[in-house]
């Protein structure tokens, strides 16, 4: 049974009103709110249930969020969790209750439905991601982790180190099929956020790459608040900072083997509370040779590092042509020659092959033909969502 959640009682419209006193508009209060906000309507399908949500993100909130672009992933996860307030939680609680679905699946399907688009800055704050209505794997993963944590689950980032790819890691206590890892005494299940994938389903060679679990930043309560001030001052003086400048974007920075953050071209990334002494600082990016340097950190001083990464020249072997390659060259004529024009499955298979070949326009055309021939197929809602995602992506591009 298909059900569309559009009743206001299910919070189909959620507005986040953060009007700034220096953002003024003429007209009524409603006009001011509309002018000072980016409005987006999200419509998605999960397991034959349709969901719809309209949100408004204030321009002032976006301006404030952009200041956090260079924050650590841990901080962005915490800020994302705080962003998804009671309005969001109420929507997903009631949507899951009315549809009979698991709340985590409904929430994850929302993030997965947002179109993929390469982002010039990895790991956008969630407000910017939702405001743009598209983003890359880092953006999807950060938003999904923040939302799941806000809903009461325990989620983190699954860093596919060799692929420079972020997905979601969901902590589960019971046995669950699919890709998982034990990290610091907990079992985490892999969940791809940038696409319609199921919990545990492998993407991006995640099962072949080293993994790192990144959790949201938490308040540090480990210090004894009753320590005398002089002890705290002495502790602070035993640290310094390392500031890194990079020759390319999206460089992963490691200090003494531990990942500490990202560095981008045109801006410096400073890492504080580094113990005094000698440290090995390494910059890594896929397709580039790692850059390593020894740095001596002094008390309360900043040590500067300049990463000059060199690209690795890769000689690609010519790819052997397959039957699928020949089919994709002239796929519509191939279907006609095989007398499969009225075969819905043929169009669906063609769409899947075209999708894998990153021929999005052709894939959309094939899926539309499949839906025309089999409008009541069990997986028709899924492919309608795929087509709708393509159309929204086209709107963003043009």
State the assembly state of the protein chains: single chain
The percent of residues in helical segments reads 25-40%
Q: Any low-confidence stretches, pLDDT <50, length ≥5?
A: 1-28, 219-237
How would you write the strand order of the largest sheet? Answer: 7-8-6-5-9
**Whole-number mean pLDDT:** 78
Rg to the nearest angstrom? 24 Å
Strand proportion, as a percent range, falls in 25-35%
Query: How many beta-strand elements?
Result: 16
Number of helices, counting only DSSP H or I runs of 4 residues or more: 13
Which short descriptors sum up this protein?
398 residues; alpha+beta; Immunoglobulin-like; Serine Threonine Protein Phosphatase 5, Tetratricopeptide repeat; 3 domains; 5-stranded antiparallel sheet; 4-stranded mixed sheet; 16 strands; 25% strand; globular; disordered N terminus
Describe this structure in words.
With about 400 residues, the chain is of the alpha+beta class. The chain has three domains: about 5-215, no CATH class; about 230-305, Immunoglobulins (Immunoglobulin-like, Sandwich); about 325-395, Serine Threonine Protein Phosphatase 5, Tetratricopeptide repeat (Alpha Horseshoe). The chain has helices at about 30-35, 60-65, 75-85, 85-100, 105-115, 125-130, 135-150, 230-235, 325-330, 330-335, 345-355, 360-375, 380-395, and strands spanning about 5, 15, 35-45, 50-60, 155-160, 165-170, 180-185, 185-190, 210-215, 240-245, 250-255, 260-265, 270-275, 275-285, 290-295, 300-305. The chain has a five-stranded antiparallel sheet. A hairpin with a 2-residue loop joins β11 (about 250-255) and β12. It is globular, with a radius of gyration of 24 Å.
